[in-house]
Design brief:
With 124 residues, the protein is mainly β. It is 0% helix and 46% strand. A hairpin with a 6-residue loop joins strand 4 and strand 5 (46-51).
């Protein structure tokens, strides 16, 4: 059974940077696509980014394109989300998630395994 554990959340000022980590156990990243999903207070979960399994292809939401970068270290079985030029609207609980080999074509609803989440707050 796959387990996902996020870390790296915290408080950052507008314009600042933060890097989240998603440590994966139970399966190798060779066989798992991993996504990042966020949920702001009072809002629905929003897909942020996803990285494929074998080909390392990446996807980004329009709201973060050009500011966020997803990557992975297969030797550590860990996926990262580097967040730059952050804005208050990035404030949310960030989750990593997976549904196996591919990034789900039906968005957030397609993820079947989730981490516990890490809080990110962008504020001066």
């Amino acid at each position: 059974q796959v387990q996902l554990v996020e870390s790296g959340g915290g408080l950052v000022q507008p314009g600042g940077s933060l890097t989240l980590s998603c440590s994966v156990s139970g399966f190798s990243l060779e066989y798992l696509a991993i996504g990042w999903v966020r949920q702001a207070p009072g809002k629905e979960r929003e897909g942020v980014s996803c990285i494929g399994s074998a080909d390392d292809s990446t996807q980004y939401a329009d709201s973060v394109k050009g500011r966020f970068k997803i990557s992975k270290d297969k030797s550590k079985n860990t996926v990262y989300l580097q967040m730059n030029r952050m804005i208050p609207e990035d404030t949310a609980v960030y989750y990593c998630a997976t549904d196996g080999w591919f990034c789900p074509s039906n968005g957030v609803a397609g993820f079947s395994s989730w981490g516990q989440g890490t809080q990110v707050t962008v504020s001066s």
